[in-house]
Design brief:
about 350 residues, alpha/beta, HET, HET-domain-containing protein, HetReg/Transcr_Mod
């Protein structure tokens, strides 16, 4: 997890790990419009125990390097710009919205707290009412005349709705997905290029949540509920469309992550499926998938520890792999087997570099 800690934050209420406490972000009311964007986003924090069955929604977004500030309990807090944009678009008109967002709800300046809260990630996303997915603030759909119909946005909504689990249940007579591609190619291309798809943390966030609500940029009217299986189908369709149409877009297959209700049990398989996803902190190549592993078998369970550097994290994981069932397979990905590969962490030749 990237460290946004320009200033200390003494207003953070202390958490009890024994009570499985987390902070919730109470997003104050406001209109998610461009006119309201001039006003600073305002929130307040509260502390709850996951054992008390709290009611909240969890955010999924790409951190990125650009920052913004939001007001939390009257204090200016530096946050990823994408988070500020997500809060502006997801806030409600007339009442507050209760959320969990890692950049604010975790005191990023405290390593011990970061470790403890990452260990609770699985339960945080399993317990939430739904995951709010912010794919990014693309301006593809901005039109000076306010008319985006020529870009196929209306048909894009129909396509996304056809992929929605809720839509499947409510309207089984939805038109075939294949018939909708013609007028949605351009918006689909840009949706496919959203950096959110490449972030390593989104896999566990959306897999573990009961359901997800997807919102992208200025398409405020496109708010469709998905399960992870639907998002995989959408990503496969986007990739297929771009290949067939030879349109520019992100390449690479979708990781073969299971649908909601299932949990990956093979650590190496999960790691390989997401190894090309992005994270600012290389340690998150390991820490970002821990919640997907339910059965560690003969392993000593890996835990997030941000006091260790990437070299130590990768080496300790390699030792476990070599000692257990992945021994020979692990060496296929070791530095010694890829001597020309980029190696920023000065790893031993027998240790895979997952960056």
């Amino acid at each position: 997890m990237t460290d946004f800690t320009k200033n200390p934050r003494p207003f953070y209420p202390r958490l009890s790990s024994a009570s499985r406490e987390i902070r919730l972000l109470h997003l104050q009311p406001g209109q998610g419009t461009e006119e309201a964007d001039e006003l600073q986003t305002e929130c307040r924090l509260s502390v709850v125990s996951l054992d008390s069955n709290p009611s909240y929604e969890a955010l999924s977004y790409r951190w990125g390097s650009r920052t913004s500030t939001v007001l939390v309990d009257g204090h200016e807090v530096v946050v990823p710009e994408n988070l500020d944009e997500a809060l502006r678009r997801f806030r409600l008109d007339g009442r507050e919205r209760v959320l969990w967002a890692d950049a604010v709800c975790i005191d990023q300046s405290q390593v011990a707290e970061r470790n403890a809260q990452v260990a609770l990630m699985a339960d945080i996303y399993k317990t939430c009412e739904r995951c709010l997915v912010w794919m990014g603030n693309t301006h593809l759909f901005d039109r000076s005349d306010g008319d985006s119909s020529g870009l196929g946005v209306g048909s894009l909504h129909e396509l996304l709705a056809a992929l929605s689990k809720k839509h499947h249940l409510d309207q089984p007579d939805a038109p075939p997905i294949a018939t909708m591609f013609g007028v949605t190619r351009i918006p689909l291309m840009y949706l496919n290029m959203a950096p959110w798809w490449q972030r390593i943390w989104v896999v566990q966030e959306v897999v573990l949540a009961p359901q997800s609500l997807v919102l992208c940029g200025c398409m405020d009217h496109i708010k469709i509920t998905f399960l992870w299986a639907d998002l995989l189908e959408l990503r496969d369709l986007l990739y297929h469309l771009l290949e067939v149409a030879r349109l520019p877009g992100r390449s690479g297959a979708v990781p073969s992550t299971p649908a909601t209700g299932q949990t990956c049990t093979d650590f190496l398989d999960v790691l390989l499926s997401v190894r090309h996803r992005e994270c600012a902190d290389h340690r998150d190549k390991i820490f970002g998938i821990l919640s997907l592993v339910q059965d560690w078998g003969s392993w000593a369970p890996v835990t997030a520890d941000y006091s260790k550097d990437a070299r130590q994290v990768f080496t300790e994981v390699a030792v476990q792999m070599l000692q257990h069932e992945h021994g020979p397979r692990t060496l296929l990905f070791a530095r010694g087997a890829n001597p020309t590969a980029w190696a920023p962490h000065n790893l031993p030749t027998w240790v895979p570099d997952w960056t």
